[in-house]
Amino acid sequence: MQGKRMTDNALENGTKYIVLDIGGGTVDVTAHEIQRDGTLRELYQATGGCWGGTTIDLEFQILLSTIFGSDIISKINDEYPNEMIDVLLDFEMKKRSYEPGVTSHISIKCPSYLFEVYEKIHGVSIREDVKTTCTGKKVKFVRDKLLIYADTYEGFYTETLDKLVNHLRQLLHVETLSDITTLLLVGGFAESKVIKNSIVTNFPLVRVINPDDCSMAVLKGAVLFGHDQKAIRSRISKCSYGIGTHVNFHEGIHPETKKRIVNGIEICDDIFDIHVRLGERVEISQPRLEKIYHRRVQPDFSNTASLYVYASTSKSPMFVTDDSCTVLGCLSIALSGDKDEKVQSALPVDTDKVIQSALSGDSNTSVQSVLVSFHYVGTELGVLVRVAKTGKVLGAKFDFLC
Fold it and tell me: Which domain of life is it from (predicted)?
């Protein structure tokens, strides 16, 4: 358990573990506990960052630009894109086969055009020129191959690994994750032995499980989940979710910029009415309480109502216009067409005339109620809207993992 890769990968009921899905572009981190019935209970909202394999590719490209010059690399990319793709593919293969502490260097075959263009511009061979620069301590050329020394190559990983390791340390200091005993390394970039060694070294008391085929582990998991979406019993919401609406204006609580006076009544616009808070545990396939929204309507308006669904990275968003908020979508409620069932938009934006008319006591207006509830199935966030008067139900789904 002291930093060794474990061969016995069986996880018992009650085990708490973190999954590091280390892909090409991003690292996705989730934490679960195995329940008695074999289902999974999410312990913390999904997190991660842009610390995948492409960050190492970028470091390699920066090195090429340092050696040959960014102008030459740009020229080769424009005129000989296929050759440069071959260079990157060669580098990708070397990333997978590199053995820390064993491999002294990696060799990358470079297209002849690189050498020719460099010599034409600078009047000297890059093979000789690199020896006189500080870059000569990092690389050397042997015929048409660029040899990158091990310490230089492993330096490509420094910033990425620092961010990944620091993120993991922060997670393990979270109260609900402090007793994590197992770490699963999956994803294509998890095949890198530099990544594996760093995780094992930095977390010696955690059991590290690294499947032989890391990339396929993700695919197999997706297939299994597709067949049984009840495998995950509950999730932790990574955002706050709610409906845009309006409320009575309260001095000292709501800013003046959000106040509108309609027929003598002060209204606060753009309220984020929270249905689920960031960090809240969500039971899958379990119905949640409905919230009711009242709308004053007129018979000569369109027989639809629009509910805007929002997500926020804040635990307590107040307004849908906050920087933390994003519109997930609009749910349009189609009604029967009877004049007394027509419902105005759930959002008060640009509806002054309707509200004024409704509040004035116009006999042609009426109040309709819609009841909204959120529910969760698999990875999707569902929104159900029920028209109180008719019982008509309309639903929509959004990606719960976004």
Answer: Eukaryota
